[in-house]
């Protein structure tokens, strides 16, 4: 799970420990890149937009990925979150010269992202995903290389904007890495190579899972406006988050797309709220089940659940005409023949960290004049998860074309502290919950 619910002290310890571990693990990689960097010794300036746990982690990984980088700007909606992130990073990198964020370059508020991006060569986008299309567009329009977290939007208009910006990134030869880190994880890469070589035949079906107890909840505090409350408790509001089928389960759905080499033509499913039903749980479901049908006829069953006390499972299974494969983010994949006998065990190298590898490859590509552009797949896998949400919320079969062309806009194009949130509570403090058979998604 990429969300941190640790205390401040624990996060500081984690950042310090991971920084030291990452620096040791990366020495061979950095030595291999040294020759290329002789010709490009420019100090790359980094801006962090979104200073929560994931943003702080991304900044840590970016600072470890290249020896000649510095963090020069930070932006967040809330000063306390920005200061907490800065304090953790400054303590972890004390004496390294890598943290050079002047007080005047700590930007708070909805427009702070522009000021931070303007100061950087490389931008880390880690705000709640509803803002991603607009932050990404501003960064690329201004010639910045980008690391952005998944998902990359919460609605179809946002997806279309990300795809448009991806094309602009190609024109400008900018690097874009998206935080679907399994694409940078050794055991997944090696497993895909086995699938492509015919080890399990043609994939005909599969199951992908993100079943867990759930994530943090931030209760309403006295004096908060409705907008501030929703921004603090953003996971539970679709315009900012998109529901957990999108925010977390996208990882497993993305693996299905990746291993099949295509995107689904339709989705149908069901879901609801059985356990997570409180006022602080906003409007999202606590379980989803979706069947995705792909162009080659394969059907992938997708399930995600946030219910304490239930089975935990995060991973993927695929059945082919010649065998099957089981993958997960623990670092080992298993291949089986048609009789269920294990034929191969595929492990990542000890110490391999896919979160770190994303940044290593991003900065190496920048130094070497290459181009990575994950934005296309990031947008299409995000749309796949949105299509699943559309199916569970409506109870209807949703086609890829319907999802892509949907005019339903969840996220306003511009948000200020005067903006009225798209979802508002009733007199009892409860938010409208999507009702299958009534909800309109397209």
Summarize the structure.
With 442 residues, the protein is of the alpha/beta class. The chain folds into two domains: 8-182 and 354-374, NAD(P)-binding Rossmann-like Domain (Rossmann fold, 3-Layer(aba) Sandwich), CATH 3.40.50.720; 186-351 and 381-405, 2-Layer Sandwich (Dihydrodipicolinate Reductase, domain 2). The protein has helices at residues 8-37, 53-65, 79-92, 112-118, 132-141, 156-172, 186-196, 226-232, 244-247, 250-260, 354-368, 375-394, 400-405, and strands at residues 44-49, 69-76, 106-108, 122-125, 145-148, 176-178, 203-212, 266-272, 287-293, 299-306, 313-320, 323-327, 332-336, 342-347, 398-399.
CATH architecture of the largest domain: 3-Layer(aba) Sandwich
**SSE string, helices as H and strands as E:** HEHEHEHEHEHEHEHHHEEEEEEEHHEH
* Gross geometry: globular
User: Roughly how many Å is the radius of gyration?
Assistant: 21 Å
- CATH topology-level name of the largest domain: Rossmann fold
End-to-end Cα distance: 30 Å
What's the main sheet like?
A: 9 strands, mixed
Measured as a percent range, the helix fraction is 25-40%
Written overview of the protein:
The protein has 13 helices and 15 strands. It has 442 residues and is α/β, with parallel strands linked by helices. It folds into two domains: 196 residues, Rossmann fold, CATH 3.40.50; 191 residues, Dihydrodipicolinate Reductase, domain 2. It has a nine-stranded mixed β-sheet with strand order 14-13-12-11-7-10-9-8-15. A six-stranded parallel β-sheet has the order 3-2-1-4-5-6, sandwiched between helices. Helix 2 links the parallel strand 1 and strand 2. The longest helix has 30 residues. The radius of gyration is 21 Å and the shape is globular. The relative contact order is 0.15. The N terminus is likely disordered.
